[in-house]
Amino acid sequence: MEPHLSLVTGKGGAGKSTAAAALALALSKRTKTVLVDLDQRASAARLLELEPAPRYEGTTIENLEVRSFTSQDELASFIERIVPIKTIARRLLRSHTFGYVSAALPGLEAFLMLERLRQLAEEAESQGTFVVVDGPASGTAVELLSVPLRLRQLAPFGTLNALARQIEDFLNDPRRFGLWLTARPERFAIHEAFETIDCLVQRRQTGVVAAILNAVPTPLLQANDCASLRSVQGHWQLALKRKAISEMAAHARQQFKRAGIKLIELPMLYTAEFGRTQIEILATAFAELPG
Amino acid sequence: MAVRFELTNKRLIICLGTGGVGKTTIAAALALEAALAGRTVDVMTIDPAPRLLDALGVPNRPAEPQEIPLNGVMPLPVGRLRAFRLDPKRMFDRLVHRYAPSPTVRKAILDNRIYQGLSTALAGVADYMAAEQLLDLWRQAGSDLIVVDTPPAHEAINFLDAPRRMVELLSSRALTLLGASRTIGRRLAILDVAARAVIRAFDHLTGLNLLDDVQSFVRIFDGMYEGFAERAGQFEAVVRDPASALLLISSAEPQRVEQTREFASSLSRLGLWPDALLINRMTDPLPSFEQLRSAKLPASLKRKLERNFRDYSALKAREAISVRNLRELAANIPVLLANDLDAEPVSLKDLVYIARSIRSAD
After folding, report:
1. Cα B128 from chain centroid (whole Å)
2. Greatest mean pLDDT among A31-35, A51-55, A189-193
3. Between B158-170 and B225-240, two packed helices, what is the crossing angle to 10 degrees?
4. How high is the pLDDT of residue B207?
5. Which of A13, A234, A273 sits opposite B21 (nearest CB)?
6. How many CB pairs under 8 A join A and B?
7. Least Cα separation, residue B157 to chain A (angstroms)
8. Chain B residues close to A188, C-beta within 8 Å
9. How far is B181 from chain A (nearest CA, A)?
10. A228 touching B, CB under 8 A?
11. Is pLDDT of B20 > 90?
12. Residues A14-42: what's their mean pLDDT?
């Protein structure tokens, strides 16, 4: 059973946005799903050829809504909430002070972002829907997830402590929160994925739902295939290159199995175009998950 | 070849680009190539993958700049390569040590909770400290070439704009708002009340009592403001120096094209234009299909190789579309290509291979 909120992370270039878009599309076949971008680039939404609507008002297409949240927006709504006089709040947001306040309150932006995710998850849980977040790169994600703990150390009691605890509870609740770790079938990429998992386990955040192996080639050569003919040297090399990646994927498959981590494999798609049609195909990789 | 030479003839190369395009690898490769050509080079990486440090022969978290042993890569006498790994917190502490007017102030800053949060928690600080480190290197003039790998950024300009933003943050106006030690105009007074209201509300909500810390932070930093402003100006001059090059790096993937376009436009909003666009991870040209068709092979193997060729041709076409789009957006600057290594670089030889593969796209 997938968590109501999925945060998709991975090393830069691993295909986080592709994986997030495919996961969101797969979940949307079952029930209403929101695909969330945490920066203005909206890479995942763009892959689906959707543009995120202004905040809090998403575009819905076939059960799939895309939304974009930025830490600045979250800070703005925070300030609007606590500065009751609208004109002052607006002036404040336009001023340098805005940047100053956010800079002076350590971890505030990350904290507000996590609080937003917690609220989204809560909403999704009560409605039986899903949220998929195209998350930051794994290093940043690990940092992000450690913010509540750091804040609790900073404020050992009081409201913030309680809020931070609430967020921690959310992050530790497998029904509401889960991480998906994207990696390509490359030796060091797999190695780093395991390092990230170790790091999360150490911080008692064990909620890795599954690893996503991206761009797995369809196998081509069998063990008994061989071509030493000089005339097709280049073609043979090309086939060997593919074979090497296939073998790396097979190796990763074993490693994840041994570690008891569920693995989703997204096939390498040999197409010149890469857009919504391709994401539709990749989404079927998530279809086998128990519903 | 000529273009690459032109690039490494500069005194400073700043490698920019979105996450996952191989900025760090290209920075290291260019630095190594220049060092092997006999120049003395400093390469500064922000948060390199451990594998790249291994490739450079650098321990995982070097406290000090590391001299990279170059013998063994080339038989000929070569230049010198030093690698720096930026530690923002250390750099910030060092600045405080350098510029605090008195030991009391220094201690007050280092002990301040806001400073501690600021110096470790904020992404912007890493950008700013990278800029400070660069300025240090530039002024030391201990090398003929500095290659900088920029921090992972939400936005292209985070690094280039960091000093200006830091100054804005510490500017008299912002300081006045919270420190309330200077003449306050009526407009500012309103903001001041609002800013205090925010922090007070936050304090109330959190029980953190930050207002006092914020105010004292602002007061003690007050005296250091001018130093920051001066260096921000110097940094801007360095970036715009004719001997400095901004190298925009992308890879030939459809998603990166859009991101690179946005990157370029955020650069131009700062009045900056990249000196070159480098498209990284270009795959090798495909062998000819004719070769395969005429070859005598077992039918099943031939079918497999034909299928493989078709598959890779599609990927090559995808790459070509991205390259075309990238060239379109960089119509006025040189476009360079660098080869894919088929794996992450694990040795200096790998980096040399990448550097040597850099060529003009024309």
Report:
1. 11
2. A31-35
3. 160
4. 63
5. A13
6. 200
7. 14
8. 49, 51, 343-344, 346
9. 16
10. no
11. no
12. 91
Residue B91 has pLDDT above 70, yes or no: yes
End-to-end Cα, chain B, rounded Å? 12
Q: Concatenated DSSP letters for B1-63?
A: -HHHHHHHTSSEEEEE--TTS-HHHHHHHHHHHHHHTT-EEEEEESS--HHHHHHHT--SS-S
Tell me which chain A residue has its CA closest to the CA of residue B24: A12
Cβ–Cβ gap B317/A272 under 8 Å: yes
Report helix, strand or coil for A264: strand
In this complex, the residue of B19, B116, B201 whose CB is nearest that of residue A137 is B19
Note the CATH number of domain A5-72+113-286: 3.40.50.300
Does the pLDDT of residue B2 top 50, yes or no?
A: no
Query: Which structure tokens are listed for A144?
Result: 């992000």
Q: How far apart are CA B1 and CA A283, in angstroms?
A: 44
The pLDDT assigned to B182 comes to 40
Which of B305, B339, B346, B350 to probe by mutation at the A interface, max A CB count within 10 Å?
Answer: B305
- Contact B208/A227, CB-based, under 8 Å? no
Q: Across the interface, which of A47, A103, A271 has its CB nearest the CB of B255? A: A47
At B137, is the secondary structure helix, strand, or coil?
A: helix
In terms of C-beta density within 10 A (0-12 exposed, 13-18 middle, 19 or more buried), how is residue A51 classed? exposed
Check whether B303 has a pLDDT greater than 50. yes
The domain limits of chain A are 5-72+113-286
Average model confidence (pLDDT) for chain B?
A: 80
Give pLDDT, residue B154. Answer: 56
Compute the nearest-CA separation of B258 from chain A (Å).
9
Most B CBs within 10 Å, among A9, A74, A88, A97, to test the B interface:
A97
Contacts of A158 in chain B (CB under 8 A): 206-208
Across the interface, do B255 and A161 touch by the CB < 8 Å criterion?
no
- Name the E strands within chain B: 12-16, 40-45, 66-67, 80-85, 145-149, 244-251, 276-282, 335-339, 359-360
**Site of tokens 């092979």:** B297
Under a CB-based contact definition with an 8 Å cutoff, are residues A20 and A134 in contact? yes
Q: How confident is the model at residue B202 (pLDDT cuts 50, 70, 90)?
A: low
Residues B102-154 have pLDDT tens digits of: 898 888 888 877 677 666 555 567 777 888 888 988 988 788 999 998 876 65
Span B212-256, pLDDT tens digits: 776 676 666 666 677 778 888 899 999 999 999 999 999 999 888
Q: Do B169 and A91 touch (CB under 8 A)?
A: no
What structural domains and CATH numbers belong to chain B? 2-106+124-157+244-360 (3.40.50.300)
Considering only the beta carbons, identify the residue of A97, A139, A239 that sits closest to B174.
A97
Q: Is A20 strand, coil or helix?
A: helix
Average pLDDT over residues A43-57: 70
Partner B contacted by A273 (CB < 8 A): yes
Averaged pLDDT, A118-130:
96
Say what the pLDDT of residue B62 is: 54
